[in-house]
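As promised in the previous annual report, we have extended the structural survey to additional targets. Below is the entry for Odorant receptor.
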Amino acid sequence: MAQLVIMETVQVADRSKLPKHIWHDGVKWLFVPIKIILDSLSVWAERQNKMTYALSLMSGASYIYILTGQVSFIFDKESDLTTAADGIAGLILVVETVSRRIINIILARRIAKILSTIYYEFWPSNLAGDEVDKLLRRRSWIVLISVGIYSMSALFWTTQCLTVPFQIHATPLPTKFTFPYLTSPFYEMVYVWQGFLCAEMAVSICGLDLFFISMVWSCVAQFRLLREYLKTAFDKVAQSGSIHTDENSEPWNVILKCIKHHVLLIDTALSYAVYECGWHLTAYERRLEKSLVLITARAQRPITITLGGFGVLSLTSYMKLLKFCFSTH
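The corresponding structure token record, generated without further manual editing, is:
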């Protein structure tokens, strides 16, 4: 009992540090740059303490004060439709940044538990062989490069927010305050303050996007590993030619291992992997075939991601949202 308490204490103490084995994993290594980015913004779920709460509170207070200035700018008599639309666009970005930070803090423990599951319970990328490991590594790089290109466009937007308003003696974000913010030295102070927050918004949004994309990609990689492991494991069992008892047969151990590690990771393509894994070449075993039938039946209901329980996240829903945003703009 004492040893268990010590192990739990060590695990809590080292929660802010990433396990060393993920540096060499073809999929989990993506969480290394993510931790560096989000930890610098004090939003990393595994390292939430009084200091990070204080920094988040200061950042949130700054954003809320900017929100008041943006609302004043939008409803100002001198703002026409075009300038009001620019103000609304900036307001949406600020609201999104604040909302993400608040949600990340509220769900920090749950996110940390999910990360612990990915670190220690998800299979390593080299489990099904070197070819699958290389494939997963290439696709992990594709994920990182794709989000990197997206982040570069966000940083380009930040430079535009910092250079163009300075030329016309305006603030980086369309705002209107009660004090004389366009006169020196208030203008310089507001300009530096909003410029810093614009950069933080870009890094925060892109960093959290990469974080959730990497979590989804880790689940997708587990699908692929499960399918490949089923194929290779049953082939090895069939080629070994060894005889086992029904109580502790090798095919049953293979399928039991797959079920234990992937009870929540069942997708449509898995049913084809089960059918083609070579189960018919092994000795007849009723419980093994029942388990395979159960996995095949469960695979007919694919896993989906919901938008807060209001709808399913898919390409169709994304295109509808994109069309709505363009029509509104």
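The chain has a mean pLDDT of 76. Residues 26-121+131-216 form one domain. These points will be discussed at the next consortium meeting with the crystallography subgroup.
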